[in-house]
Amino acid sequence: MSSLSKACPGLVVDQVVKVNLHRPSGFSLVELLVVMFVGALLAGLVTPVLGRARQAGEKAAETSAAKNLITAYLAATQDQEGVLLKGYDENGYASDNRGQNFPEGSSQADRWPWRLAPYLNYQLEGAVLVNERASALDPQNPNHSYLISASPSMGMNSYFVGGHENGQPAYSYTTNGICVTRLSQAVKPSMLIVFSSAWGLDPSRGKNVDGYYYVTAPNSSPRWPSQWSSKGSARTYGQVRMNYGGKAVTAQLDGSVGLLGYEELKDMRRWANPAAVQDNPNWTP
Q1: How far apart are CA 191 and CA 194, in angstroms?
Q2: Which distant-in-sequence residues (6+ apart) come within 8 Å of 132 by Cβ?
């Protein structure tokens, strides 16, 4: 140490402080690029995880909804001494949660959601409405009750279970015994789909949106294509929505609930009683 340092030790300290004060502040360009790269990398890792977590939550919610629906459906069947609730009933009767009757012949009275509502104690969220449908509908909307009847989260296989009195071939399916109208008629109730994840085409937006009140089987009209594509129109796949890794939530007539992939869903024994009677997965009505 120099004599000046010994004589004035504070001078060195001051010089050091002055040097530090003159050091450039903030991040360098390289440091900023590193931070941005790390941030992008973390976002790329986290986003798929969050997406999978969200999908798992939605799948669990819809599975629970399917269980609530089929339980209510079987309760209605028991109340009607084994007669299955129709998906579309032109002589249907229904009322809202305030006890207000819907007009005879209205969509609310004809379609199944409001006719099944009493067996759900009118708790439609978590059964008739779930996930996107539960959050999309506004109770203050004057069309609220109509939208519930038209686009519940799950559609009914009403051409082959219960009945669908709204044009051909629905009437003939009921009258010629193709459609199961009583619980005792089902040969394999553990396979026979009553409800399935559903969606429909919104003409105003030109895209598929969650929810539709009925679904159609793969060998019905229109006939499903050989492979599933998430970009296809809802009607191409009978309004069946397969958004859970290419699978749909289904509820069967025995009260069971499952997750079925495209090849499983193409088995007509899961849709129509005659296919089960003949043990023919390719049966065509």
Answers
A1: 9
A2: 153, 209, 210, 211
116, 224, 104: which is closest to 162 by C-alpha? 116
- Both tokens of 38, joined, read 């790390």
Residue 102: the pLDDT is: 97
Triad 263, 130, 245: Cα angle to 5°: 30
Distance CA(178)–CA(276), nearest Å, equals: 11
Q: What distance in Å separates the CA atoms of residue 208 and residue 72, rounded to the nearest whole number? A: 28
Long-range contacts of 103-107 (CB under 8 A, 24+ apart): 107/146, 107/149, 107/150
pTM of the model: 0.82
CA distances from 15 to 3, 11, 214 (A): 16, 6, 83
**Which of 65-69, 136-140, 168-172, 176-180 is predicted with the least confidence, judged by mean pLDDT?**
136-140
Q: Return the structure tokens found at 226.
A: 């050989």
* pLDDT (average), residues 179-184: 97
What is the CB-side half-sphere exposure of residue 83 using CA atoms within 13 A? 6
DSSP 213-230: SB---TTSSSPPPSS--T
d(CA 139, CA 133): 12
What are the backbone angles phi and psi of residue 67, rounded to the nearest 5°?
-65, -40
Give 215-265 pLDDT, tens digit per residue.
999 999 889 999 988 888 899 999 999 999 999 999 999 999 999 999 999
